[in-house]
Amino acid sequence: MLYKRIFSFGLVVSSFLCLPVTARCQFPNAEKDIFSPLKQCADSLRKAEGPTITPAEVLNILDSNPPARVSVALPVTIKKQLLSASALYQQNLAAVGLVAMCAVSNPLRGVQLNHASGFVITADGVFITNYHVLYSYAHSHSMHDWGTLLVRLGNGKVYGVRKILMFSEHDDLAVLQLDVKQETLPYISLAPKDATIGEAIYVLSNSDKQLYSITTGIVSDKYNQSMGGPSGVASFDRNLLSITAEFAVGASGGPILDGNGNLVGIVSSTHVIEQMNTGHPQSQMTIKNAIPVSSLQKLTR
């Protein structure tokens, strides 16, 4: 067997050697330097019948009842020194991940790859992304497709996903365990409280092909919105921040940091406000939604 169920919720993926994707150029060609090597890594895994986590397996997990929270030994280090944007980027880049959702529907077409963002929060490889990232991976492929999830960190190292520790559709969060063996990873510290309206923030993400980029802005609002998750099964109230820092498709799950480099939020979604009175919809404003750090804290304590 390629994987082993360890309890009713989660998967274990055993060791598999995959060469690091080590492109570190300042202006990488996304397809050549990052996506193509990740596809080659996934294809080598497939041909060697190595460990994997398929869309069908993820779907099975998402259809289960997750625990209310997961015990994570979060570091107590909180950064207090105000940083320049450049210093903040350099100090946190290695903990920011590109989530590669790899699948093969037809071997003649090779590995298909969609990507999102995420970040490490503990030295032993606990990793955060959005619930809707896993949902998209599980539902965008046939139940019989081969697939796997890889995470490439900003330092060029690539890891498989060893477990899905928990998820929350309500909060649009997923907590993963990377397969790091005994390696110690760089991580992002969680701020002790949510950001305030007007506070300066920084987003590190992988919007489209602008990989490992940084944008800056402020927290423009904090609100509670009634909404449904991607499954459409339930409606619930979700605590949200709106921010002015830019992000786009591929940024889902990216970290939002305060001026000291502590996590204050997680990229989630966008919403376009349109003016409809003229009969011709006109986009007026794009609301950029984020999950506050307090929502992550309640799931990991």
TrEMBL record:
Residues in the signal sequence: 1-23
The UniProt record lists the keyword rRNA processing: no
Gene3D superfamilies: 2.40.10.120
Keywords in alphabetical order: Signal
Species the sequence originates in: Filimonas lacunae
Entry-linked PANTHER family: PROTEASE DO-LIKE 5, CHLOROPLASTIC, SERINE ENDOPROTEASE DEGS
UniProt xrefs under Pfam families: Trypsin_2
Record flagged with keyword Transport: no
Source species, domain of life: Bacteria
Protein name: Trypsin-like peptidase domain-containing protein
InterPro entries assigned to the protein according to its UniProt record, in alphabetical order: Peptidase_S1_PA
